[in-house]
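ugh ok fine here u go
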Amino acid sequence: MPNPSVIVNARRAFFEYGGQPTIVPRNVITDGYADVGRPLTTTEVAYSGKHNGLALYFARMVKPIWKERIVIRM
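structure:
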C-alpha cells in the first residue's frame, strides 16, 4: 500500500499542474484561389497534460488484453 502522503501529493500535482485544454486557431492553407464558402480559419483543441496522462495510463492498462478474443464462435 502506498504512503498516504504520496497519494495526496500526486493528486494535488495532477489537478494543480495538469493544465487545461485550449482552443488553438489554425489558418487554412489555400492554393491561391478565393474559395467561396471555405472557412479562413479552423479551430483545433490542444489537450491538457491531464488528458494525455490519463490516455497513456488507460492505453497501458488495456494493452495486455487488447487483442484477446472475448467472444467464441460456435
